[in-house]
């Protein structure tokens, strides 16, 4: 120890001292509550306020009914579409930021993260102010085209509004990992591509995209998973048929007071998410065979 | 699941932010706190639970947001020297969940009537010593001894409310005095909003079909569900108890909402009306109760007695504009409140209205499943 040159991997006490507190924190406040909810998913309601962990699979059987599978499918489709839009919009933004001059870059990145400084709920209400029937967009258009018999657009309380909300809120989750991947790109490869006569689009397609692959996969996961679990946007912006699976889960825990079933639904989502992450690491391993 | 959980611990007060071209954003007592996240509740109690000393000079009050007179708590402080610390919940479910695992230190709570039943069944309420609440005499007799607490032993009524249809007068034909216009007609296609609460939707649908809203059988639930699925293309949205906001902003012209919420916007916009549909509706009361394990039951009684005082009740009604069951307080209010047809509706609809009963978790599950199918 005196030399201070021991390999940190071999300094067991120091390692344990460093790892201990975060590991304890993780177990106590993440693993344990998750385990409790997981146990609930095999439980039965007894009376008004008690849950008995009876080991039943009835909650999962119910979660697999066509009604809930249908809602799950719809949520997956919503999440896929929102992720795709985020990618299409986010990629050029990330590319532009990574090629911007250094001091502008900082400002652009702050710009991307700026919305996080405002509570999600406030941002969603701002969208309502924009989209509603007598909101800013409709009033603005009416002012401009009112003379031509402008009819108000129906922008709120439908699936379109939900999609706008989902994309708006999750776009930074796409842009940041994409930027991280693109920023690390070896510029000399791009120069080589141009030197060898490839155009801009071709360079992006053949050089940038493959190199940014892992970044794109991270961006997809970081966007897709939170979108899948969104409940605020369908609640506030949606119409009569905009409910997503998270809304159903929320109601089980609140109004329906059916925690076991809500836990089962939530864990269906969890299994799906874990499956997605496992798939990603599998792809990653195949990409970089050691 | 989303950043929503991180809602800042604001204690509300009045609606924040702004939305809509026509009006500032309004959030009712039932929606504001849910909007700001439950975090608020935890924080304020934590903040005051710390010092054990000085027992007897403060009281923990767990209630709905914007549901008390502006000066009421200060007045109580002046009269008794007791400082009331307020925390807010946004739904009865939240209140129930919070107390389910044991009372974390609340002295007085404000559950709605059906939850009084539920909490009595779960043995979560302390029996009241009515001798310590002489002001109970101020409460009109028709609000005492209802089924949810027949004695009354565990609760005293604080406000009552009735669900009805809020509407924009200039945009509807006559008075929309039937649930038909919300449940079973395309006349106002795309201009109606219904509450998202499953039990309300099924029960009021049953009322429209001429049935009682208590003891609804499976066939009736199915019938209402099918009616709502047919009606879905005409419904703009199922709102989270912010119907008055949608109505005031012009997003919809008819909305299922509580009378107190509509009374608040009708005070700003004379084009707003409210009617209890002729088929009848659902009556609710919010009550004052003391949860089991309350640290200061004696002060809690004192506080409840103070809230039922005529003068205090008047201040509360002036602020929240909900109908009061306190006839002594009502007598002190101006005619604009006493004779307000929104706050105190009358007629066939009211005569046909019923108190809702808590009918157990199984019934709630059936309601919930039906509405999930409607919205799938």
From TrEMBL, chain A:
Residues 72-280 form the ABC transmembrane type-1 domain. The chain crosses the membrane at residues 15-40, 76-100, 107-131, 160-182, 203-228, 261-283. Keywords: Cell membrane, Membrane, Transmembrane, Transmembrane helix, Transport. It is a multi-pass membrane protein. It is found in: Cell membrane. CDD domains: TM_PBP2 (cd06261). GO terms for biological process: transmembrane transport. InterPro entries: MetI-like, MetI-like_sf. Belongs to the binding-protein-dependent transport system permease family. CysTW subfamily. This is ABC transporter permease. It comes from Sandaracinobacter neustonicus.
From TrEMBL, chain B:
Residues 9-18 have a biased composition (Gly residues). SUPFAM superfamilies: Periplasmic binding protein-like II (SSF53850). One of its GO terms (biological process) is polyamine transport. Keywords: Periplasm, Signal, Transport. Its main location: periplasm. One of its GO terms (molecular function) is polyamine binding. InterPro entries: SBP, Sperm_putr-bd. The keyword Signal applies. CDD domains: PBP2_PotD_PotF_like (cd13590). Residues 1-24 are annotated as: Disordered. GO terms for cellular component: periplasmic space. It comes from the Bacteria. It is found in: Periplasm. Belongs to the bacterial solute-binding protein PotD/PotF family. Required for the activity of the bacterial periplasmic transport system of putrescine. This is Putrescine-binding periplasmic protein.
């Amino acid at each position: 120890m005196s030399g201070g040159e021991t390999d940190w991997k071999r300094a067991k006490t120091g390692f344990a001292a460093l790892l201990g507190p975060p590991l304890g924190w993780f177990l106590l406040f993440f693993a344990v509550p998750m385990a409790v909810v997981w146990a609930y998913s095999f439980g039965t309601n007894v009376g008004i306020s008690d849950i008995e962990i009876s080991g039943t699979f009835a909650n999962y059987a119910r979660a697999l009914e066509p009604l809930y599978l249908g809602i799950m499918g719809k949520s997956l489709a919503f999440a896929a579409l929102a992720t795709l839009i985020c990618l299409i919009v986010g990629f050029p933004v990330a590319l532009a930021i990574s090629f911007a001059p250094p001091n502008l870059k900082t400002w652009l990145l702050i710009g991307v993260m700026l919305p996080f400084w405002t509570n999600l709920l406030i941002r969603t209400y701002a969208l309502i102010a924009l989209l509603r029937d007598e909101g800013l967009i409709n009033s603005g258009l009416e002012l401009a085209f009112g003379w031509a018999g402008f009819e108000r657009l129906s922008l709120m309380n439908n699936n379109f509004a939900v999609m706008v909300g989902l994309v708006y809120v999750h776009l930074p989750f796409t842009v940041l990992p994409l930027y991280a991947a693109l920023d690390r790109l070896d510029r000399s490869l791009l120069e080589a591509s141009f030197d060898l006569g490839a155009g801009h689009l071709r360079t992006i397609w053949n050089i940038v995209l493959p190199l940014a692959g892992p970044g794109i996969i991270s961006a997809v996961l970081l966007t897709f998973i939170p979108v899948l679990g969104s409940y605020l946007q369908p609640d506030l912006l949606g119409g009569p048929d905009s409910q997503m699976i998270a809304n159903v889960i929320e109601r089980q825990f609140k109004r329906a007071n059916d925690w076991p079933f809500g836990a089962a639904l939530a864990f269906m989502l969890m299994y799906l998410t874990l499956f997605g992450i496992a798939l990603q690491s599998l792809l990653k391993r195949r990409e970089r065979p050691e | 699941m989303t950043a929503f959980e991180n809602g800042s611990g604001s204690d509300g007060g009045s609606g924040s932010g702004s939305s809509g071209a026509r009006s500032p954003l309004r959030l009712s007592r039932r929606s504001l706190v849910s909007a700001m996240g439950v975090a608020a509740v935890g924080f304020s109690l934590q903040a005051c639970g710390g010092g054990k000393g000085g027992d007897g000079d403060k009281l923990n009050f767990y209630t709905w947001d914007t549901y008390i007179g502006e000066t009421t708590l200060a007045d109580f402080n002046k009269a008794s020297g007791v400082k009331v610390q307020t925390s807010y919940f946004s739904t009865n479910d939240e209140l129930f969940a919070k107390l389910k695992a044991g009372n974390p230190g609340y002295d007085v709570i404000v559950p709605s009537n059906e939850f009084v039943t539920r909490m009595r069944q779960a043995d979560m309420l302390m029996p009241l010593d009515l001798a310590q609440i002489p002001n109970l005499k101020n409460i009109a007799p028709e609000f005492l001894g209802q089924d949810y607490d027949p004695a009354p032993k565990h609760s005293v009524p604080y406000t009552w409310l009735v669900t009805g249809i809020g509407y924009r007068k200039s945009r509807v034909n006559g008075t929309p005095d039937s649930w038909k216009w919300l449940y079973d007609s395309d006349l106002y296609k795309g201009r109606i909003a219904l509450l998202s609460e499953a039990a309300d939707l099924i029960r009021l649908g049953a009322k429209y079909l001429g049935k009682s809203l208590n003891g609804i059988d499976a066939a009736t639930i199915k019938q209402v569900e099918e009616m709502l699925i047919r009606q879905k293309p005409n419904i703009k949205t199922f709102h989270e108890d912010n119907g008055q906001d949608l109505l005031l902003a012009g997003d919809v012209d008819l909305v299922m909402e509580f009378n107190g919420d509509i009374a608040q916007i009708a005070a700003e916009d004379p084009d707003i009306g409210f009617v209890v549909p002729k088929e009848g509706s659902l009556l609710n009361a919010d009550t004052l109760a003391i949860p089991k394990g309350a640290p200061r039951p004696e002060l809690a009684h004192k506080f409840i007695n103070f809230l039922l005082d005529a003068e205090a009740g008047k201040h509360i009604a002036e602020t929240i504009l909900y109908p009061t069951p306190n006839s002594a307080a009502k007598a002190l209010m101006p005619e604009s409140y006493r004779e307000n047809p929104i706050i105190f509706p009358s007629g066939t609809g009211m005569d046909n209205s019923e108190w809702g009963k808590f009918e157990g978790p199984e019934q709630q599950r059936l309601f919930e499943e039906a509405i999930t199918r409607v919205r799938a």
